[in-house]
Amino acid sequence: MKQLIIINGPNLNLLGKREPEIYGSQTFDDYLNILKSKYNKVKLDYFQSNIEGELINKLQEAGFSYDGIVLNAAAYTHTSVGIGDAVKAIETPVVEVHISNTFSREAFRHQSYISAHAKGVILGFGLKSYDLAIESFIL
Ligand code: DQA
Fold first, then answer.
1. Active-site residue 23, yes or no?
2. Which end of the chain has the smaller Cβ count within 10 Å, N or C?
3. pLDDT computed for residue 139 by the predictor
4. What percent of the chain has pLDDT over 90?
């Protein structure tokens, strides 16, 4: 059985309440249940933190044992050399995801410290971006 983990960064614990015109009105817990039943042949774990170092610790921990990591580092995408370095350092392939199309938003969201080290990047499809990322690991 393939082992995948979704790692979500800061403020994504507020999905459903946070700027619903951009991020939608569904909570991530509800969406995760849908993903888990859709991909019931996959072991799908989940981790969320608002703290940069905790995200790095989780990437290091998962990055030598899981088959794939789906990473939405949220705002840290645009600022964190440390998270970019962690993605580069680990063996497990990482697919970077974003709910919104960051390229249609403010210029500071166009920069990613992760993309260069990711297997691929999926953005702009709402929560469906996570579904597409999981799909990419089971093709
Ligand atoms: C985001 C986009 C980021 O720019 C933002 O800081 C987020 C969410 C997205 O999923 O669209 O928190 O990663």
1. yes
2. C
3. 76
4. 99
